[in-house]
Amino acid sequence: MTIFSHPSFARHEHVSFIQDAATGLKAIIAIHSSRLGPALGGCRMHAYNTDDDALTDVLRLSESMSYKAALAGLPLGGGKSVIIGHPGTDKTPALLEAFGRAVEHLGGHYIVAEDAGTGAADMRIISRQTHHVTGLADPQRGTGDPSPNTAYGVFLGLQAAVQDRFGDTSLQGMQIAVQGLGHVGMRLCALLHEAGAQLWVADPLAERVRQAQERFSAHVSTPEQIHCTAVDVFAPCALGASINDHTLPELHAAVVAGAANNQLLRPEHGDLLRQRGILYAPDYVLNAGGLIDVYYQQEEFYSRTRVRAHIERIPTTLAKIFATAREQQMATNRVADRLAKTMLL
């Protein structure tokens, strides 16, 4: 099978495979579209089971970044990168610098930011070898960490989905299951708790679960079972494909709205959610707050007010998608994809 016949290849403009023997770097950079501007997207570091898993992930993520930027109204294209390796044991400054040289070689067509397995400190190291990086900790341009604004956008989008499904934006007493307590998931829990929601949580790391119990009086489930919880809203905030052939029939929530990328294993799972009467908030619309943040971090004068104002457009975009889906009897993910593709023509 060639890259062009790969199931997740969606007419990507460019795919780079990078290997550096001296540092052990194995990475892939995928640019899906530069129609609206340079491709900006995070660098994920993960110990993938196979190289094909890594390729599938970067292809799917870069495509969704194109759609995310388009529907967020940003002059950006869609790109993503993955480094194959465990971020806790395989990451070294030399490896990150080698990756930075690969980014620089693309001449600005791809701009890298942090993602799962990387952070602002890693972006600082990568910046030793390339100027095409954002998300750096800088007093003039924000903290470098986009996760608070990602969580804020997801919170607003979740509220919009609740209003559409239940007729009220209030989350007081709403039962919500959060799968994944990383930087975004934990911050989302804080916002939901403050709004009066009752929380069920799950994460592979016991310490994160303990913190959520203490801070938010959260009920505890497991990553494998939390989707089965009888709640109002299921919020996937871990890795993708949480809605699949196995989990979808077991869902009890009326709304799926979370921060994870590529929550649907296949587009058809959006159709099945609609058939079951479950409202799905398309993930790349909901979680655009981080991309909005790092876009503004590129400007000379970073404005938190402008960032927040831009993120607060997310509920309006979602409301349009929900209304169109009802009118045209379509799944919400199909509507969002169609809108984004129209903007990329």
From TrEMBL:
NAD(+) binds at G180, L181, G182, H183, V184, G185. The keyword Oxidoreductase applies. Keywords: NAD, Nucleotide-binding, Oxidoreductase. InterPro entries: Aminoacid_DH-like_N_sf, Glu/Leu/Phe/Val/Trp_DH, Glu/Leu/Phe/Val/Trp_DH_C, Glu/Leu/Phe/Val/Trp_DH_dimer, Glu/Phe/Leu/Val/Trp_DH_bac/arc, NAD(P)-bd_dom_sf. Residues 144-345 form the Glutamate/phenylalanine/leucine/valine/L-tryptophan dehydrogenase C-terminal domain. Signal peptide: none annotated. It holds the Pfam family ELFV_dehydrog_N. GO terms for molecular function: nucleotide binding; oxidoreductase activity, acting on the CH-NH2 group of donors, NAD or NADP as acceptor. GO terms for biological process: amino acid metabolic process. SMART domains: ELFV_dehydrog. The active site is at K80. It comes from the Bacteria. Belongs to the Glu/Leu/Phe/Val dehydrogenases family. This is Amino acid dehydrogenase.
